[in-house]
Specification:
InterPro entries: GDSL (IPR001087), GDSL_Est/Lipase (IPR051058), SGNH_hydro_sf (IPR036514), SGNH_plant_lipase-like (IPR035669). By secondary structure, this protein is α/β, with parallel strands linked by helices. It has a domain at 22-273: Rossmann fold. It is 42% helix and 10% strand. The chain has 15 helices and ten strands. Strands 2-1-3-4-5-10 form a six-stranded mixed sheet, sandwiched between helices. It has a two-stranded parallel ribbon with strand order 6-9. A two-stranded antiparallel sheet has the order 7-8. Helix 3 packs across helix 13 (329-343), helix 5 packs across helix 6 and helix 9 (186-206) packs parallel to helix 11. The longest helix has 24 residues, at 237-260. The radius of gyration is 21 Å and the shape is globular. The two termini are 31 Å apart. One 2-acetamido-2-deoxy-beta-D-glucopyranose binds at residues 116, 129-130, 133.
């Protein structure tokens, strides 16, 4: 073959790579301990750790894997059901460009919040700004590997999950040692959180995120820790009200971004009602206990974390809570299935990149009550890009 022939083949191969980006659809996950799959394991000074038994007892080989649960996270389960691979932790030493292109990345970190100052008592954790900074590094890495045009396409076709907020209350605003607790009141704190979240989602859009889900907060006043801190053992109504305000605010932020940012589909996954019902009527869902952590240390409460000397409940699938803060695998499964149903993630054969087909029109989205899931779709339909 002559020189010209080689050159032609070379140009053709390169052309396909740049135009088509034969990339898989993968997920990039931003979150806290509810979505952490191992980042904090590598943050050696972090006090938010799930690195001891019995974390992970119902996952893989049963050894701790960094998840703050006995089993899977909600994002694990949603991905499994909708056909997306589980992204590895950003700090996983085996992470390479090829693994990122095949699986995405999970930046979630136990103790992290929307605000930089949240969770500072844990010493080390990735707050959402930090997670976005790390994602920017990932974008640059992939651009260097496959070129800017292909990378743009890859990141625009990927799925994004943003699931933070409970630490901004539990490990910040509701704890008097944090200055936010006396600098703000309920209303101004929520406004501060919403402004911050909005700015963060705009940065993500600028980095290519187009199909993004934000998970709302559950009734965080009912986690075992909050119950044990109340004098009656009941849920803390103030924390629950804050969760509801957070959910309403986030839903509005997504509505407004949908109107202003081009080509983006934002979905708000509100699980408050189903978790609240599960906690109030556990038997209805086949659970037996929605008040106590399955993993506890004799009768010493709060137990703070699950340790090897702790005792486990008899049937982990019957408990809503695994430890003082985090749900069990079976509660996560219930939440994941509810979110899939509410967000219509299985309608129209997700994960095909056709958001127009799986998201209701903005009109029908507004018909939902503020507490139900909202699907936010852009007013202009997203045409499949011609070079596909
Ligand atoms: C939050 O932290 C990031 C670094 O992770 C920094 O770039 C940013 O300026 C901080 N933002 C605020 C409002 O403190
Ligand atoms: C449910 O819990 C009660 C005690 O709270 C216990 O007596 C009963 O055996 C449990 N049932 C199941 C199915 O685990
Ligand atoms: C939005 O999508 C259209 C059609 O695919 C494309 O031409 C346009 O550049 C996109 N705009 C942005 C800001 O991504």
């Amino acid at each position: 073959m002559n020189f010209l022939g080689v050159l032609t083949i070379f140009v053709t191969v390169l052309g396909i790579a740049i135009d088509g980006c034969n990339c898989k659809t993968v997920q990039f996950i931003f979150g806290d301990s509810l979505s952490d799959v191992g980042n904090n394991k590598y943050l050696s000074r972090s006090l938010a750790q799930a690195s001891l038994p019995w974390y992970g007892i119902d996952f893989g080989n049963g050894l701790p894997n960094g998840r703050f649960s006995n089993g899977r996270t909600v994002a694990d389960i949603i991905g499994d059901i909708t056909g997306l691979t589980r992204p590895p932790a950003f700090l996983d030493p085996s992470l390479t460009e090829d693994i990122i292109l095949q699986n995405g990345v999970n930046y979630a970190s136990g103790g992290g919040g929307i605000l930089n100052e949240t969770g500072s008592l844990f010493i080390q954790r990735f707050s959402l700004y930090k997670q976005i900074e790390l994602f920017q590094g990932t974008v640059e890495l992939i651009q260097a590997k496959i070129g800017k045009a292909a990378a743009d396409r890859f990141f625009q076709e990927s799925r994004y999950v943003v699931a933070l907020g409970s630490n901004d209350f539990i490990n910040n605003y509701l704890m008097p040692v944090y200055s936010d607790s006396y600098t703000y009141n309920d209303q101004t704190f929520i406004e501060y959180l919403m402004e911050t979240l909005k700015a963060q989602l705009k940065i993500l859009h600028g980095l290519g995120a187009r199909q993004l889900m934000v998970f709302g907060l559950g009734p965080m006043g009912c986690i075992p820790l909050q119950r044990v801190l109340s004098s009656t053992g009941n849920c803390q109504e103030r924390a629950n009200k804050l969760a509801l305000s957070f959910n309403q605010g986030s839903s509005k932020v997504l509505d407004s971004l949908t109107k202003t940012l081009p080509n983006a589909t934002y979905r708000f996954g509100d699980n408050y009602d189903v978790v609240n019902d599960l906690i109030t009527n556990p038997h209805k869902y086949g659970f037996n206990n929605s008040k106590d952590p399955c993993c506890s240390f004799y009768n010493i409460r709060p137990a703070l974390t699950c340790v090897p000397a702790s005792t486990l409940c008899k049937d982990r699938s019957k408990y809503v809570f695994w430890d003082e803060y985090h749900p069990t695998d079976s509660a996560n499964e219930l939440v994941a299935k509810e979110l899939i149903k509410k967000l219509g993630l299985m309608d129209g054969g997700a994960p095909s990149p056709a958001p127009a087909a799986i998201a209701p029109s903005p009109k029908s989205a507004h018909a939902h009550s503020p507490k139900s899931a909202h699907a936010h779709s852009p007013t202009s339909a997203i045409a499949p890009s011609p070079e596909g």
